[in-house]
Structures are given as structure tokens and as C-alpha cells.
Amino acid sequence: MLAREYGYQVSSRTAIHTPGIEDELVRGRRTALVVFAGIAGPLVILPLMTMLMFTVGLDMRIHYTVMAVCLAVAFVAAMFQGRADRISKGVVLLRGHAWQVWPCRVDDIEGKLTERRLSLLAPDGTAAATFRTKMPQSVWSAMTDGRGVLWCAGDLRFDMVVAAAGGSPFWIAKPETPRQRNERRPRDLENSSLEALIREARTNVVWNLFG
Questions:
Q1: Pairing mode, if any, of strands 160-163 and 10-14?
Q2: pTM for this predicted structure
Q3: For residue 36, what pLDDT is reported?
């Protein structure tokens, strides 16, 4: 594992055992249930209302009102589909991988409002791996100059779970394609700015947070 080779902290157990992770997964499962009900409900109700309209002469105004409500519910449920998918994919990664503590930098991407480039940094300041991710605004705002230490679970070649220290909130990051990496090469971080991040990634202080 590259993180261990660099001397960065790696949890002894899989990430799923971190205190607080299960609470977020429970909230995620509830969200997934709401999404399922919000999409499946209209698929059942709308055909039934249409059948009643023709068989018992249901008032058209009632039919259209129910249709509007169902479509609104389905639209709201679809908005939460991304969160449900994140939890579903996150569970697999959290159960199969340990936390790796990585110093990193995060850069805006030209033309992208919410997507950012996440660079996991080697001890010499170069990017060991780069990802595209939609990280929570609260985490982005808390990073000074887009630099900080984040926790990662997964294989650097594939999708990973990324989290703030402590494991929550967590989100999914996708590795950049060769074309994306060539669009704008992430800058290497100066040694003076990197030293504090390296120390934090290597310190035993984070060990107690792994659970």
C-alpha cells in the first residue's frame, strides 16, 4: 500500500468500524428508502388513478392534482438519488478497505462549479494520485488554501471513499482519466507548505480516531 510506504497512518481495521460511520450509514439507508418510495409510489399510483378515471368517472381535477403531487414527489426523490448511490458504493468500500491518512491539495476545475481536483501528495510534494470529486462545501471551506489532510478508503486506481478526519462526512472520488490529468497538471506543493501536512499524516494522534 502506497500510503504505508510513505509512512502515512493506516488504520488496523476496515473503515466501517470507525465510530460514527454506522450512524451516517443508517441515515443513508433511510435516504435510500425515501428515494425508493418516492419513485416507486408514483409508478403505482398514477396507473391506478388513470384506471379509476375511466372506470368510475373520477373527476379530472382530482386526477390532475394527484398526478402533480406524484410528479413533485418523484422529482424530490430523484434529487436525493445521488446521496443514496454514494452511501451504497461507500458501504462496499468502507467494509473492504482500511483508512489511509493522506496530505492533499484541492483545486478548482475551470468550467466546473461543484467538481474539484483532489491530489493525494507524496512526501516530495508531487501528486501520487489525482481524483475528480464533489466534496462537501463545509470540508472545502475548512481547508486553508485548499490544503489539508483527508482520510481515504479504497484502491488509488479506482473509486475511493474520501472523508474529513474522523470519517464523517464522507463522499466518493473518481480517479482522473489520462485526458483529464493532461488538461491542467496539478502543481507540486512547496516543501515548506508540505512539512506540516506530512507530520499530521504520520502522527499517532490520529490513531485514536480510527476506533
A1: unpaired
A2: 0.69
A3: 57
Q: Could you write out the DSSP letters of every residue in the chain?
A: -HHHHTT--EEEEEGGGSTTHHHHHHHHHHHHHHHHHHHHHHHHHHHHHHHHHHHS---HHHHHHHHHHHHHHHHHHHHTHHHHHHHHHHHHHHHH-EEEEEEEEEEE-TT-SS-EEEEEEPTTSSEEEEEEE---HHHHHHSBTTEEEEEEEE-TTS-EEEE-TTS-SEEEEEEPPHHHHHHSPPPPPPHHHHHHHHHHHH-GGGGGGG-
Counting other chains too, the contacts that 198-207 makes at CB distance below 8 Å and 24 or more residues apart are 198/103, 198/123, 200/101, 200/103, 200/149, 201/6, 201/8, 201/9, 201/101, 201/102, 201/103, 201/149, 202/7, 202/8, 202/9, 202/101, 203/9, 204/9, 206/9, 206/101, 206/165, 207/9
Sequence ranges of the domains in the chain: 2-18+97-210, 21-88
44-99 pLDDT per residue, tens: 566 666 665 666 665 666 656 766 766 666 665 555 555 555 666 777 888 889 99
Cell of 41: 409510489
